[in-house]
């Protein structure tokens, strides 16, 4: 009997071993480690790159310096009456009795995005042809030219 018992015991152990292997294989399959996918690494590298950018800028360049001065003086003379400049030494003159004696060549021009302003000096002669009386006055003035606007003349103090 001892031989039969030992054979039964070995058989039982063999069956238990097979069952343990089967259970281990089933749990091992079910608890299998997830697949690891290799993701490529993203490398950010700063690179200095020179980029050429073209920008168009409108630059107002007068054709001639004298043209600018003449334009400003002509506008000043046109607006003498509007600026109450037809009086000299308390005598009132007509526009045809006033003339430009000298326009000084040292003048300035300021440009902004939409404007052009000319600062100049002019000497006027007031002449009454009937009495031959003369009067001279020098004015510092500016003429402001704005886009789509009439020129604006003002005296500079």
Give a brief description.
The chain is of the alpha+beta class. The protein has two helices and seven strands, in the order ααβββββββ.
> What is the distance, rounded to the nearest whole angstrom, between the alpha carbons of the first and last residues?
139 Å
What level of helicity do the residues show? Answer: 25-40%
β-strand percent reads 25-35%
What is the arithmetic mean of pLDDT? 83
Give the number of DSSP strands: 7
Query: Counting H and I runs of at least 4 residues, what is the number of helices?
Result: 2
Shape descriptor: rod-shaped
* Quaternary structure of the protein: single chain
Radius of gyration: 51 Å
User: Describe the biggest sheet?
Assistant: 5 strands, antiparallel
Low-pLDDT segments, ≥5 res: none
| Class from secondary-structure proportions | alpha+beta
Order of helices and strands: HHEEEEEEE
Describe this entry's structure for a reader.
- The protein is 27% helix and 29% strand.
- The longest helix has 29 residues, at 2-30.
- It has a domain at 65-155.
- With 157 residues, the chain is α+β, with helices and mostly antiparallel strands.
- The mean pLDDT is 83.
- The strands form 2 sheets. Strands 3, 4, 5, 6 and 7 form a 5-stranded antiparallel β-sheet that branches. It has a two-stranded antiparallel sheet with strand order 1-2.
List the helices and strands and how they pair.
Layout: H1 2-30, H2 65-78, E1 87-88, E2 91-92, E3 98-103, E4 108-111, E5 115-128, E6 133-146, E7 152-155
Antiparallel strand pairs: 1-2, 3-5, 4-5, 5-6, 6-7
């Amino acid at each position: 009997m001892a031989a039969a018992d030992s054979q039964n015991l070995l058989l039982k152990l063999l069956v238990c071993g097979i069952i343990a292997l089967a259970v281990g294989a089933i749990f091992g399959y079910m608890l299998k480690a997830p697949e690891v996918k290799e993701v490529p690494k993203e490398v950010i590298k700063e690179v200095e790159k020179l980029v050429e950018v073209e920008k168009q800028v409108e630059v107002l360049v007068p054709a001639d310096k004298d043209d600018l001065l003449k334009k400003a003086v002509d506008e000043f003379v046109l607006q003498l009456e509007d600026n109450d400049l037809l009086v000299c030494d308390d005598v009132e003159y007509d526009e045809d009795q006033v003339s430009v004696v000298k326009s000084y060549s040292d003048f300035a021009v300021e440009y902004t995005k939409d404007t052009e302003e000319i600062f100049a000096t002019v000497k006027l002669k007031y002449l009454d042809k009937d009495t031959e009386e003369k009067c001279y006055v020098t004015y510092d003035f500016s003429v402001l030219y704005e886009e789509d606007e009439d020129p604006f003349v003002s005296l500079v103090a």
